[in-house]
Write a structure and sequence with these properties.
This protein is mainly alpha-helical. It has a single domain, classed as Orthogonal Bundle (Rna Polymerase Sigma Factor, Chain: A). It has 3 helices and no strands. The model has no long low-confidence stretch (mean pLDDT about 90).
Amino acid sequence: MTEQQLMKIYQETIHPLYGYMARRTGGNRELTEDIVQESYLRALDSWKSGSPPDMPLAWLKRVARNVQPWKPKG
């Protein structure tokens, strides 16, 4: 994966991913930022030796849900 490919994915996914996690964390900015950052770090590690998945945002959301250190109420 090239740096250009990664930047394109980042630019296309950062706002939707951040918004998604902000809703899931109840607007907790610090927690949202930590989860989003960890999701991208895991993506870099996973995608460095190959290509990204066909739907990177879906992949990132799934990772973010698994990173999430709390369980939603309900």
